Amino acid sequence: MRKKKNLIPRMDKCRHLLAEAPAEHKGSWRDLLRPGCQLRLELGCGKGRFTVASAEAEPGVLFIAVEKVADAMIIAMERAKEAGLENVRFIHGDVSLLPEIFAPGEVDLIYINFCDPWPSSRHIRRRLTSEGFLQSYRKVLRPGGSLRFKTDNRPLFEFSLSQLPKNGFALADVSYHLHEKGPAEIMTDYEAKFYEQGLPICRCSAVMEPMPPDPGRTELSSPGL
Ligand SMILES: C[S@@+](CC[C@H](N)C(=O)[O-])C[C@H]1O[C@@H](n2cnc3c(N)ncnc32)[C@H](O)[C@@H]1O
Question: Can you tell me which residues bind substrate (predicted)?
């Protein structure tokens, strides 16, 4: 992404939407909107089309968008400011920091939309649906909380479908062609482009359950062994 001109002054104009020291809100994020409200995270929000449309559609829900590239996030922040949203905050940082920023069980729902596929097997651990990341989401999601994942990348989707159950996420809703009969739900910037090109979008939901038993560990702890 090209470097944005005047990033700092532009950021200053939207500063009320930026969580500058996000760890200070750990355990009390809902105070930013209303006690007891739903708290949802969007990981890698990019330019924020999904963030803004979702927050407009559900003003009673607090949306926290995480993005590591400031040049993309500024566009999302400006869109949120333009829309006059009060139920969105942005975190400029890496998804790997979530457990430092959110208390255990604080989050109701996590969206992962069109994350980078990292196709090489050397980079599996960088995929946002790989084991290390899924285990970190478990630390911040409430029991029964959920994760919603969308991608145009079929191999990444298959990989994710294999990883989710192993990490205690029960698959609830799997589609290989979400918008087959026309736009089915709010789209991200990437998704809108892919949709216009006629490409199928994969989407799944998954509900966090207790971790499945580890077969290796069960064998070792069996009586008599
Ligand atoms: C392919 S873009 C998709 C953007 C947006 N979700 C959409 O669908 O239009 C992936 C975005 O995730 C961000 N991203 C990737 N890995 C990240 C990480 N570990 N922490 C925070 N943001 C990340 C990238 O900077 C990029 O903006």
Answer: 152, 188-191
